[in-house]
Amino acid sequence: MFKRKAKEKKIKKPRFQTFRDAYKVTKQVKPWISLALIGIFAVSWGIGIAIGSVVGQTIYFAFVFLPVALLITLLFFTRQAGAAAYSSIEGQIGAGASVLMAIRKGWTTTPAVAVARNQDMVHRSVGRAGIVLTGEGSNAVRQMINDERKKAERFAPGVPITEILVGAEDGRVPIRKLQKQMKRLPKKLTAHQMREVRARLKAVGGMSMPIPKGPMPTRAPKLR
Q1: Distance between CA atoms of residues 113 and 36, nearest Å
Q2: Where does the sequence pass through the membrane (predicted)?
């Protein structure tokens, strides 16, 4: 009888280190972030203390509003860090792949399944919505996407294929909205069908390419 191999423990990055990395990226893009965080915390906590002084319970309200002020400050930082992360990679080679690969649930992305000399490239993602071909670069990338569509149709016939162009031009999806665009796609495959498509396309593979490094937001804070 063979014993099952014990599962290796996943090494999780400490939350403090993740926060520190996000702060460094945000500081580079938005040098004023430190003063903004201090100001938001001070104003939020000051409002609570002011309310407490009016009702005659200053100390009590100071304790109550302390975590509230911290939460408001953290939510503000999360939003700014997300915007800074996108700004730090925008325009870099492989920025689209970096954003796609940061989607942890529901999608598997193979970066640079097609690359041109002028650095146009196409990435292939597989999820419950089917196959998504994401192109970044000049308008010539449209032909590359069309070629990859034919290849995907040959290996996985009948599977829905969505085409996305990344960029700031009209008709393209901005890099900061790419994750949201992917998550909005309707689910058309079952989990079993999705795994089968992944297995079929695994043989096609991709190319090695530089991916912009740095903390990427996996989800945006739900604020209105």
Answers
A1: 42
A2: 32-52, 58-77
pLDDT digits (tens, 9 = 90+) for 158-216: 999 999 999 888 889 988 889 889 989 999 999 999 999 988 887 665 554 445 545 44
Contacts with 204 (C-beta within 8 Å, 6 or more apart), sequence order: 110, 113, 124, 151, 152, 155
Phi/psi at 146 (5° precision): -60, -40
CA end-to-end span of the chain: 58
pLDDT digits (tens, 9 = 90+) for 14-48: 666 777 878 887 888 888 989 999 999 999 999 99
The total of other beta-carbon atoms located within 10 Å of residue 222's CB is 6
Provide the β-strand partners of residue 110.
Answer: 124
Distances (CA, A) of 20 to 104, 138, 219: 21, 36, 18
| Residue 128 CB-density burial (10 A; 0-12 exposed, 13-18 middle, 19+ buried) | middle
Residue 174 DSSP SS3: coil
Q: Are 94 and 210 in contact (CB under 8 A)?
A: yes
Give the pair of three-digit tokens for residue 30: 């938005």
Q: What is the rounded CA–CA span in Å between residue 164 and residue 144?
A: 12
